[in-house]
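If you are new to this repository, start here. Below is one unmodified record pulled from the training split, so you can see the exact layout before writing a loader.
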Amino acid sequence: MSRRGRRSLALLALLAGAGALVRVRRAAASAQLRPVDALAPAAELSGSPLAAGTFLPDRLGAVGGNAQVLGPVWEHPTLAAFAEWVPAPPASTLTRALAYLWAAPMTAVGLLLGATTGVRPVVRDGVLLFPGARGPAAALLRAQGYAATTLGHAVIATRGPSPSLMAHELVHVRQAERFGVLFAPVYGLLWAIYGYGRHPMERAARRGGRLATTR
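And here is the target side for that same chain:
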């Protein structure tokens, strides 16, 4: 295929992807519907609970007296249930081994990113944790207002994570164990529709962090 043909094909693929995203956004904003409840507890975010039917700005760093309240968000009941799903860890040696294998590609990316942090990883709750990360990875996390990120069974944190933060990240670990290589496209698609604050997988992780502090 000529260079012009490849460019045309790439342009068509881009247009098709944009059209699909528009259709998904419209579908998520219309038909079968349920209001999204308050997304995060006061202790984790702004210091005061959010009313049901509101959502957070996409960056948690923007929270703190300046959270913008934008009206109710509606979603399909399946996604609302997904946002409340806190997966349990694998129950047996076999399922644990399969979960590590299924999430291995994402873990490999996490280990490569962790290698740039300048800190030695420690094993915690069955994952490799990079606490007190430095370097470009930490700078990017802080710039986005995030305390940690999880890729497979690798957790990179800008500080030693609290029990609630670690529980939050472990929900992402369990999600990666279920979705494996599909985690990134599923997460990315939902991000495109919801943003960060309303993201069903982030809401589930925040729920996991809250449950850890009430036990």
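Two things worth knowing about this chain: The radius of gyration is 19 Å. The chain has a mean pLDDT of 76.
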